[in-house]
Amino acid sequence: MTEDVLAELRALRARDLPTHGGRTLAYVYDSALPGLDELAASAHALASSVNGLDPTAFPSLLELENGVVRTAARLLGGGDAAVGTVTSGGTESCLLAVVAARDSRPDVERPSMVLPETAHAAFHKAAHYFGVRVVAVPVDPDTFRADPAAMAAAIDDSTVLVVASAPSYAHGVVDPVTEIAAAALARGVRCHVDACIGGWVLPHARDVPPFDFSVPGVTSISVDLHKYAYCPKGTSVLLHASADLRRAQYFASAAWPGYTMLNSTTQSTRSGGPLAAAWAVLRHIGDDGYRTLALRALESTRVLREGIGKIDGLRVLGTPASTLLAVTAARDDFDVFTVADEMKARNWYVQPQFAHRSSPANLHLTVTAANAGHESELLADLRASVEAAVEAGPVRVDPEVVAFVGGLDPDSLTPAEFAGLLAAAGMGGGGGGVLPERMATVNTLLAAATPALRERLLIEFLGALYS
Length: 467
Prior knowledge:
CATH topology of the largest domain: Aspartate Aminotransferase, domain 2
CATH architecture of the largest domain: 3-Layer(aba) Sandwich
Strand order of the largest sheet: 1-7-6-5-4-2-3
Strand content: 5-15%
Keywords: Lyase, Pyridoxal phosphate
CATH superfamily of the largest domain: Type I PLP-dependent aspartate aminotransferase-like (Major domain)
Pfam families: Pyridoxal_deC
GO molecular function, one term: aromatic-L-amino-acid decarboxylase activity
Number of domains: 3
Order of helices and strands: HHHEHEHEHEHEEEHEEHEEHEEHHHHH
Distance between the termini: 28 Å
Family: Belongs to the group II decarboxylase family. Sphingosine-1-phosphate lyase subfamily.
Number of strands: 13
Organism: Saccharothrix saharensis
């Protein structure tokens, strides 16, 4: 019976994108180190039943978390003063950074935070959850880096937090943290650096300007363990420059007849499994191992970037400094959404990104250590995919349909009308396999929608998936 259950699970997993081998260039991070999965799974099993709600009841988790935080703080220039918390992921780390900044300033009636428009959507989620107003500042239209002068000008008496990225997800560029943090410091405002992706890589990169606690004015940093620390999913670290800065992140409530609730994260009960797995992986790989993995991923990114520059019709956006690439079309006789479909047919997943302001539609590539040594295969398939996309020509959708979709008001449509739109776009129906094999037409229709309509369409689609 046990084997039957596991066999059923294996059959379900066989439909997923591959999580190893470097062919899924988003969502997953693969070190390609043998035995790492087994170590993490064993460590997870040892602590999966332990509850992180009360560190005094389970002191093993307290020691593990403090050890993980010390490792991250040492890597990111925190010294002995920096403190931190292990969270469930980068989004939770960013949420907690925002709520800590908000709650540290109870004197501000309508708190706001200043973001470059390239900041991760997690900060918009935090704004939505916690009632913090977003002041989104345009970035340089060519480099996609934050404009420190414009960021400084956007800070006012309502600002409780300023955010910079190291790097930004969409383009892989590092914002000018020194200048942004200085502007925040001059106004007495917290400055958070989102290093969820870069925190375990950029310390080993050359020619990257300072971005960590060595920069005056940086008050908190988020860094994910389940990205380039190659730990299993479900672990990130939020670091604060001091315990005083972290205090507002904590939540306590004695206003009920049960135990006094005391939480360091948005979660109460949380399994010790992910933390134990992360601790084990960090100990196993070690500082020298991480340096090797980071340099391997950085070098692979450099090779791919140079190779993409030699493919007729493609160009890389901005000047990426880490391990992320945004690749767009340099001509108008093919569509990058079709390139994504062609890559999928060749067993690669590249992530489509829609146009936003000066950033055209593009394909996102997350490069990991697993891509090292396999760049020529990826580049050959990318070149063939572009050739196939040129032969197919740009995606053609009836202009009247595009105009119709572009003019829809998401607030005036009923759920039934949304269902009809989803079906027309090839996203209707339930039961699992709801998407067509080729997504170029769907993505073109979504690109024609306003951001608000696209959000609503995808929310309705998500609801259909879980029905």
